[in-house]
Design brief:
Elements (H helix, E strand, L loop, with lengths): L31 H26 L7 H30 L5 H15 L3 H24 L9 H16 L3 H9 L5 H33 L4 H13 L4 H4 L1 H5 L39
Keywords: Hydrolase
Protein name: Metal-dependent hydrolase
GO molecular function, one term: hydrolase activity
């Protein structure tokens, strides 16, 4: 039996962020490195999340009824995420950033993946969805990651994080269904190799993308590297803090819902506003 909670509700929230507001160039607390890495991440989402939808939908036919409903909710959430990050990216461009090099890199990675069999694309989606889920967990668990950020931008990232946690098991459950006739050893070998490949590309591309955006702000060389690596790995250290959760992907019996972290969603009320105050750990469904 799959460990996705039976009472899980995946709720698409059709929200729009910052349409009538001008995005300050260094919107993340005036910090060039913080602004750069979040802008670099956002650049991946319009095309990347469309790719996730395409990869999962390819295996929707004949899935169990519950999984079929979850795939539908997942694709709706991801489509809205793509739309909102496209709008956010346009605001970043209006603030003066040239995102073209980063967008070309995303397209290159996706075009390479599309040459592989559909099950490989699904495996890549499963691995990347684990990345987004553990990043989302850390972002909601530690308010310091968005401390000082533009209010509308911060709300966008928290909203996205909430929905990433909600649907974190969909791509994995679809993978389990699609490979249900595979020997366990083959399934583990493929998913492990894909995760290692995805991890390398994720770290290299997001780092080089952030450095390119920092260059556009006049910060280059050793200073740029020092600022970015300190921010990502030391303080607040998002990448360091997700390392343990990343490693669990390779353990026997792994499933994204082995950790039920829906307590982090408790601050997100029905109006779509997020209360970043400390949250009591509960096990209630959202």
């Amino acid at each position: 039996m799959l460990p996705t909670p039976a009472d899980l509700t995946i709720t698409p929230r059709d929200r729009r962020f910052g349409r009538d507001a001008t995005l300050t160039r260094l919107w993340h607390g005036g910090r060039v490195e913080a602004t750069a890495i979040y802008n670099a991440l956002s650049t991946t989402f319009p095309k990347g999340e469309a790719y996730f939808v395409e990869s999962v939908r390819a295996f929707r036919e004949n899935t169990p009824e519950k999984l079929g409903r979850e795939i539908k909710a997942f694709t709706t959430q991801e489509a809205i995420h793509s739309r909102e990050h496209d709008a956010f990216n346009k605001r970043a461009e209006n603030a003066g950033y040239d995102l073209s090099k980063l967008e070309e890199r995303v397209e290159y990675r996706l075009s390479f993946s599309r040459k592989r069999p559909p099950v490989v694309a699904l495996a890549a989606t499963m691995a990347l969805e684990h990345f987004t889920a553990i990043l989302a967990h850390q972002l909601l668990a530690n308010p310091r990651h968005l401390e000082g950020a533009d209010k509308e931008a911060a709300e966008l990232w928290r909203w996205h994080a909430v929905e990433e946690i909600e649907h974190k098991g969909v791509a994995y459950d679809t993978w389990l269904f699609a490979t249900r006739d595979w020997p366990r050893s083959k399934r583990w070998k493929v998913k492990a190799k894909v995760m290692m490949f995805v991890t390398r590309n994720f770290l290299v591309d997001r780092t080089t993308g952030a450095l390119e955006l920092m260059r556009q702000d006049g910060v280059t060389g050793a200073r740029a590297w020092a600022l970015l690596l300190w921010y990502l790995w030391i303080n607040p250290g998002m990448f360091r803090k997700i390392a343990g959760a990343w490693g669990k992907f390779f353990l026997p019996g792994f499933h994204p819902w082995n950790e039920d972290d829906r307590h982090l969603l408790a601050g997100y009320d029905t109006s779509g506003e997020f209360d970043a105050a400390p949250r009591r750990k509960v096990r209630a469904a959202v």
